[in-house]
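Problem 12. The chain below contains 483 residues. Write out its predicted structure in token notation.
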Amino acid sequence: MRSLMRLLKKVVIALAIVTITIILVRAVDSRKLPELRVWHTVELESEYRARRDGDIDGFAAYLAQEQRLFDELNEKIYPDVPAEEQAAPSRYSQASPFNANNHAKNWNRTVELVPEVPTGGVLMLHGLTDSPYSMRSMAELFHAKGFYVLVLRLPGHGTTPGALRHVHSEDWQAVIEPAARHVRSIIDDEQPFLIVGYSNGGALAVNYALDALDDDSLPMPDRLVLMSPAIGVAPYAMFAAWHKTLSWLTYFEKFQWQAVLPEYDPYKYNSFPKSAGHETYALTQQVQEKLSRFGASQTARRYPPVLAFVPLVDATVTTADTVNYLFLQLNRPADELVLYDINRFSRLEHFMKSKHQDLLQSVWDDSNRRFGLTLVTNRTRASGTVLARTSLNGRITERLLEGEWPPLVYSLSHVAIPFPPDDLWYGDGSNNSDEEVSLGTLTPRGEKQVLIVPADLLLRLRHNPFFEYQASRVNELLAEATR
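Solution.
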């Protein structure tokens, strides 16, 4: 027994030494990151924090606090931008087209689209490091159908990447509740209320509906529409908070950051603090734990129907977790998962690490699956044309889609799902003038180690070539909901 205890003690000591060494090495390595700017370091005190500010006294109170926040942003950040930065493509350069203050509507802030006579209401929740702009096209689609649309800015977003160092998942959840009540109060009782969530916002939408099952004071949505929901992320995200052991020291302050990059994107942060990733990980664990209680319970039957659009390959969230924790737990004919396949006709297929068939085949062939599964895929392996193949209750239907896979595009990406090809900032450039820059068309070629941003950031697909199909499915849903 003593020998076993001595062995365990040695193992614990060895693990502690290894852990400390890894943390120290990573901390030292973080000092190689670019210098932090004012938008990385300055804290905006007007941002809502649940632990400090308590419950929000209605949606109007949140908008008033948001106004104070953007006033503080204008006072603390823009005047301190160095002269050399003012000429750069920066969201913090006051005269730059990359500054959202210079756009007709600043979609970094909470946005309301109000019809003359509402036919329904929708609350939209954006993703981590994003802004309400990521929901713009979907918001305009709902508004065109007569819906009152509220695109909520979640705390920590739309201002500076440094703001994400101080945000907690409870802050996001706290602002959703008064927003949902506000949307529900705008429309008639018999009119449909939906929640649309993208990425981190998708996890928050799922979590809100789970909470509404147990709290009658929360308006229950009639349906959820999700895009790449963060039901699960990579397991190593659990270690994202380890930086706190040393990052409080000025010498290691960069250890807080996963990436420090130029902020040229007007509506999405490029820099990423580790703590924000840890908050999303904590949220996914909370959602998974709640969903695991479902099974075939009566509670699951009361949960709103779910329509989700998800890429088969996703470097940000885990598609398998969306299948296993959400759809297979609910497992109802009322739900549908739309999977965007990889381009099976792509000349780049031979360069792929995997053909990503295992997950697809397992869920497609699952005899116990009751939810609808639609695969947006090549019509044949010898063709770039695309169809939507749907499997439900053993019956397979096909719908040929217009258009083809764009040249050299081998898959969709996590960040592409909510944006149409004609998006001014992230589209294919087809809707831009010669003077307008589309971040979605940047495909630089040249020597390596020359660019100040990673090449994979620029080459990642930023728009969804099949957004028209996605929009048509949502329009069908809205026609049914308002019938």
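Discussion. The chain has a mean pLDDT of 90. Students who got a different answer should revisit the alignment rule from Section 12.3.
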